[in-house]
Amino acid sequence: MNKSKKKSEEVDSENNSSERDIVISNDKPYICDICQEAFTQESSMIMHRDKIHNEEKNYGCGKCKKKFEFRSHLSRHQISEHKIRKDFTCDQCEKKFVKKSSLITHQKLAHKNREDFRCNKCERNFENKSTLLKHKKIFHEVFKNYLCEICAKRFDTKHSLLLHLKAVHEGRKDFPSKVDKDYLCNNFEKKFINKSSLLLHIIRIHKGRKDNANDKCEEMFGQKLHLLSHQKTVHQYCKDYACNKCEKTFGDPSNLRRHQKTVHEGRKDYICNKCEKTFGEPNNLFRHQKTVHEGRKDYACENCESKFGQKHQLINHQKVVHEGRKDYVCDNCDMGFGLKINLLRHQKAVHEGRKDFACNKCKQKFGQRWIMIQHHKTVHEGRKDYTCDKCEKQFGYKNSLLLHIKAVHEGRKDFSCDICYKTFGRKSHMLLHQKTVHERRKDFACDKCEKKFGYKYHLSLHKKTVHEGRKDYACNSCEKKFGDPSTLINHKKIIHEGRKDYACNQCEKKFGVRGNLIKHQKTVHESRKDYSCDKCEKKFGHKQTLLVHQKTVHEGRRDFKCDKCEKKFGHKSHLLTHQKRVHEDH
């Protein structure tokens, strides 16, 4: 008799009052001893028996008194809590066991006559034909690398794809298609064999109906298959399909195939027909089209007015923003992050020093992609998309705007210098203050005149305005030009609008620029003179006054010359006084 044909044998039922013939096939050799249902794998039969026939927690731990409903839960408990090791490994399927006797029993039941179902690709043996076919489909199936961009159907040869295009999408009758698909989905341009398949697709994918509820959690699924897969992997912790490249395990073969295709082969077969962005999975393409091109944000936060295009974004938002959770801690610096991806980016950029993202304009490199994008937007495009609604100051970064509002308009200065107790709205400003004021460091030198600056921005501004003579920001009221946008904004506000928004709370004097108010309070009301001359120890309230003093007194420079008598002065004010008194009187 052919071995692939079904064999029958008598099996004693659990009830000894009668005997009946049970048909056992090579395809399903594992029989439930309670209801006689047949299974292809021993694990499936055990899972069935645990779930259907076991109403109580009959699996007790031999080390403690804890009981479990499922054997798999007991096994996981013993491994994690009691450190019970599985030292006995099956040499045919690599399944592990605690006891040697369990391994022997497994080999007798699972691998009997396995030589009859040997894979001709890798010579691995299987207990039945269906398992062998499943193995071949997962690991040895020829990938269909030719994708139809109209209906996303795949083909293993270019010739098959061309035949499909001519027959299905060009309507050529001389190239008959294998199956006529006359039912078209308008959203995806996907075709279906019959109307019921099309309606089912629309209900589940586009209308979001999920009729399959899980009784152990609140998760809903559009298809029963997805529900069963969720129960198996999440609630029963069964992940029987292992990747042979990275040891990651999966609950069903389709997820394993998807993982191998997208992760290890890097394939992205699904193309957006609007922006040509590619995706590894059709679901990701659908989400992209829904959120990016349709602008849909179907997930609203119940704590605030934020909306999100994807459910996981809402969950992350609630966890990080409203619960304040930072579950991912860097083991190098103890910095906490709300999302794992941000921790990985931090470790890569900060601790590994990697800068994988280069600007295509200036070749400057960055540790994170979003910083590179912001750099390109603000530096090369000159964009400042965030405007303060209180003073109209513009910023290239949203975070810079928020810090500005907090420090300038709300008066919050949470960072104090431990040397002079001056307070700052940002930690970076406090550190720069210490470096430039107390350490007197000027790390940024001009390569044209050797002048040094404490801030990189001041060096860039110096080069642009002094050496290049650029004044790119023109006033539309008086055509006066300025080297940087902040000076232009202050000019318009003070000169043309006559605004003086910064009032001294001690003498009610008003100023157009906040910096002038601070200088006034410091020098007039606090009588502070923080700038000392290193040659004569004379002190000044303003840095500019110190520089003028050093230039005129110690360097003897007289840069302001009268155009009528050629007399020279060290101060512009002295020149103006001279001209008024001497030359206007005659």
Mean pLDDT rating:
75
**Class per helix and strand makeup:** alpha+beta
* CATH architecture descriptor text of the domain at 386-541: 2-Layer Sandwich
* β-sheet strand percentage: 5-15%
Spatial strand sequence of the major β-sheet: 1-2
Name the CATH homologous superfamily of the domain at 386-541. Answer: Classic Zinc Finger
Q: Which stretches are low in confidence, meaning pLDDT under 50 for 5 or more residues running?
A: 1-25, 172-181
- From the alpha carbons, calculate the radius of gyration and give it in angstroms: 38 Å
Distance between the termini: 134 Å
Largest sheet: 2 strands, antiparallel
Can you tell me the overall shape? elongated
Helix content: 25-40%
CATH topology of the domain at 386-541: Double Stranded RNA Binding Domain
Q: DSSP helix count?
A: 19
CATH domain class of the domain at 386-541 = Alpha Beta
Polypeptide structure, described:
The chain is an alpha+beta fold and 586 residues long. Among the domains are: 21-139, Classic Zinc Finger (Double Stranded RNA Binding Domain, 2-Layer Sandwich); 386-541, Classic Zinc Finger (Double Stranded RNA Binding Domain, 2-Layer Sandwich), CATH 3.30.160; 542-586, Classic Zinc Finger (Double Stranded RNA Binding Domain, 2-Layer Sandwich), CATH 3.30.160. The chain has a two-stranded antiparallel sheet with strand order 1-2. A two-stranded antiparallel ribbon has the order 3-4. Strands 5-6 form a two-stranded antiparallel ribbon. A hairpin with a 6-residue loop joins β37 and β38 (568-569). The protein starts with 6 loop residues before the first strand and ends with a helix. The relative contact order is 0.02.
